[in-house]
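ok here's the first one, seq then struct tokens
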Amino acid sequence: MESRTFQVLEFPKILGALSGFATSEPGAAACLAIHPYDTLESVRRAGTLFEQGAAWVGESGFRMRAFPELGGIFPHLDSELAVLDQDALFALKILLDLAKDARESLAGFEGRDWEVLEKELFAYAWPQKTVSGIGRCLDAEGQIKDESSPNLMSVRQEIRAIHQRCTKRVKDFILQENLGAAMQDEFMTVSSDRYVLPIKANFKNKTKGIIHDYSQTGETCYFEPIFLVETNNKLQELKREERAEEYKVLQYLTGLVRQEQDEVRDAYDGLVTLDVLMAKVRLADAYSGRTIEVTEEGAPRLLKARHPLLALTDESVHPVNIELLDGQRAMIVSGGNAGGKTVCLKTVGLIGLMAFSGLPVPAAEGSSLPLWDDIFVIMGDEQSLEENVSTFTAQIQYLKRVWDKVDGHSLFILDEFGAGTDPTQGAALAQAVIDSLLEKRATAFTATHFPALKAYAMATKGVRAASVLFDPSTKKPLFRLAYDQVGASIALDVAREHGLPAAILERAEKYLLLDGSDTSAVLDRLNAMAVKKEAELDAIEDERIRIERKRANLEQKFEKERTKILKEVQSKAQDVVKQWKTERIGQKEARKKLHQARLRIEDIAPERKKEPVFSFSDIVPGKKVSYLAWNKSGTVLEINEKKKQAKVDIGGVAMWVKADHLGPADGPSRPVAQPTGTKAAAPGDLVIEVDLRGNRADEAISELERAMDAALRKGAGKLEIVHGRGTGALRREVHEFLKYYPAVENFSLAPEDRGGDGMTEVTLK
């Protein structure tokens, strides 16, 4: 794709805005280097990466921190003699700490199936040696720790011991020599790695010693007493030893980094990718953007689209629907100046570039674009004084240069093509160009004022006409498109709005009447009708949204009431089971009460989950049916003609159910022989499984409580809880809950062949 296309459609400005959301310099640089992908697979993968990244950021609350530019250290490591300095290693520590935090955050969502996100960011071996070595040798401020090596610790201990001795000797010296009045500061200081006393310059000859330096004002001199000379010499030797030991530590750490250079580079690249991804998420938040579907073929469809640059700076930008119908490959937009024709064309081109680059765009859900390999643009004043060409000549030269590249995977944007020459010939040329683009099966978006081209749009198959709308009374633009009609140019109204003298306007109107080609009255009427239609459509859409919201609120209210009643029934069922377990009530009474509770649950089952009932004659032994109250399938064992009931085996539990509580099951039926004396499976043999993976701890415990209630109602003897391995946090929460649940007899981890520490098996009382 030509760089000119990016400049004309202002794609670099979008990348500049994106880079402003990055937290690091390498991330910002990577944002500026983004370009459209070549294949549909790459575009879709980038879209999936954004969607998974946005979901992760929203759920985890993870926030990116700044990290330094480290691209230069990798070529430096190619030399075997190269040693990374303390600053470079500390920068690596910051980088790897951030990478570790990001990996751990994402690891907490292992059940969410975010494979693309994990592979793009963290599909590399972790540089454990480097992380451990740097963590052991550098502190939180980036300084080398004493514990980095035994020799370094020994040297530093000696240096600290010398400091303590010097401090004591200096204090004694000041008292003995009565130099308190001579001191500028109470304590000694260091100059050129030697302990010295800051004394007033006029006291420098009061005692023997060496003057090392003066302050800028000259009032203070840094004086080394004779008794400190030998100690300072020793200190110099120790400082040299300290630097040598520190260099050995740096060599050691550099060796670790060199051993795991590929892993460290991958970690760095992964963080840069993460920074770019987080910048995309922030960009989407800035203008409510999203990824849109990109297809191999098809008509472009942008719903409630806004020009991305305008959407970033002005929240009140009017959205517009830009779409071609099936079989259409060109759109011709007409209407008055300043009505938004050029913005409409630029919106299509810029959103296309962004979508193909994996960027979120300001368009509504349901939008889609075909993948264009090339986007060509003729827009604005192409005139070049340096090259001595007019606007029309420049347009023709560009068309000639790119024409052979245009094919069925191209988008061609023509804004006022042919406007720089005779209107009749320019319109004819524009029609011919669009005809040829249709033959090449390219997609074309055109803006025009030519009456002939407007008529062409209405009459040509495969071309859709559209008009920008204006307020019928004020002639101000509404920044909306009306389809399958053309619009007036209203040049005189625009000139009047911008203050052109009335005398000039009156003469222009007279000339227009004399010419006899004034169709403004008809087009004004079309515009008024279109505005009215759009207003009616808006009212219908608002009413639809209102009804959907009302329905959602009612459903939410119903669900709350249903959940409340269900919990009450479950609580009563648990009480019944506990009373039966403690032999306070008999088995017959317990079954009666549980049956009443089950009937109440059936009464509050959502209507939308009920399938159409079938007649009792459809229910025969061996037929698979669905028990609507539980949304479970079972097999009919026998029927009771008199009571219109069927005995159904559901997961090992046999129960009598009314025929109107049953519905057809999806699974195939199988004939069942029911010999005399056959008994249904005992409820105690029933095993219920609950899968808690992917839930937060509080959600998981709530789900587990519901599963326990259901198991007790059905008389199940065992419960299998799938919580996954992960970090083990969810498993600990589950076990803590089971310890104090009264209906649990015992629990343990499953055998390795049945899930190991990823599943807990529970035996119920």
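and now the second one, same deal
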Amino acid sequence: MLIEYQLPLTSKRADVILAGRDRRTGADSYLIVELKQWSQAELYEDDAELVLVSGMGDRPKLHPVVQVRGYCEYLADFVGALDQHRNAVRGVAYLHNASDPDIHDLYDHVEGERTRLFSKTRRGQFVDYLKAQFAPESGAEAADRLLSSAIRPSKQLLKVAAGEIKNRDQFVLLAEQRLAYEMVLHAVEKAGAGNSKQVVIITGGPGSGKSVIALSLLGELSDRGYSALHATGSRSFTETMRRVVARGSTRMKAMFKYFNNFMTAKPNELDVLICDEAHRIRETSANRFTRSAARTGRPQLDELIAAARVPVFLLDEHQVVRPGEMGRVADITAYAHSLGLAVYQVDLDAQFRCGGSRKYEEWVLRLLGLDGGAPEAWTGDDHFTVSLAESPYELEALLRSRLEAGYSARMTAGFCWPWSAPNGDDSLVADVQVGDWARPWNVKGERAVGNAPASALWASAPGGFEQVGCVYTAQGFEYDWNGVMFGPDLVYRDGKLVTVRSASKDPALMRRGVSDEQADRLIRNTYKVLLTRGMMGTTVYSVDPATQEFLAGLLEPRG
């Protein structure tokens, strides 16, 4: 019996996994048991995927069988020992405080060959089911094989997104992810049936699955015949979607837009507008290329909400890194309410980046002073590696060794060095200099320079490792091993980390309208983004001696 089993590369835990030998075949067999203390529950507006639970408010919960089914599929996808034995994993939802009459309609449309639902009324049937599944012998060896199995690399977004849109079966949505997905589908159906309009907000930290949800929704909604588009405020992210996800399909490329593409959209022209990376929403869509006649001053948020019957906003407030970005829950909610629109919010609490280490994400927030806490020593996590490099040479060498071992790896830095145009011989200028070590920033534009990929493909294309990435290029992406260089814009002084605005070379922070308080927050958020790109581990280095010494006190140096 494995209690509180952590699903690979996530922070989600299955309540119990029973491991044993299959009574019929003698092969390894596993049963995931999701325990619910609910005493009464019913379907949410006859939706077989959602339920309302008595005493837990009026917000719907994910049907427990749908939840455990997702766990089964996820485990089979990520545990190497189960690669060719998906049917070895089954699931049960056990509502041990509920009688059948109190949950009677939860049995509709949920049971299948691999998932079942039991209440306390059916305890005897549950026991019989267990006896039928497992042979009367020890399951210790089966449990050991599960625990020691190789974990296949996470299905990173860009590698499978094309299949996600075409087939909609590349990702498994877990718990709150599936809840968010079902809430959007429910809102779309309800808006269509009632000729109404609703707003959905989905919040979550790095790697919580926001973009996975966005692409899953785009594929499903398109398959159902709804008019749906995906939009972001990030050139790197949108261009990557167009080039990787929609490669070879002009029609599919047209499904990926920018936030400022909706300035002239007709009201409710779309059924759904999926606003990914919504923390990048700007005050207005106008920029220096906008014709004067189109400079109406209309808020970009108004344009996005107006464009679809169901606008969906996926965001992380700690990733606001530029002045003028307005994508906060309070901003969106207040604006929607001012229009008389209902707002539904789902918060994703799972962690799929950083090895599923919620501990690491909390450590980063404390380190940067973003949660009100004080920095603390890193005490380790079996699911994620954090270390300190003693020089930029060591940082690069470590990451290169990971790359040569078949992993993805990238190095990023705070925006503290100039960013030059390419040389005349089609080479990049080595702007990022620390002593006698120097490397170029990633390419600025949309075309490759020599062997360096275009900006939008820096995080995923071959050749990207040879350049240092900045926050605007790294945001929204992930790689296995992450290296972060702290520049002189964030240093340790008088017992704490302080920001030094004058050390930043970011043009966005040089504007007169940006206050020192705003600059401080944006610099800290920048490092939050950079520090949370890795799937397996992060190594850091600071160019400032006092800061390097401070980090050494929190981390064990490598070697």
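notes on #2: Residues 35 and 413 are 44 Å apart (CA to CA). The chain has three domains: 2-148, 157-348, 354-555.
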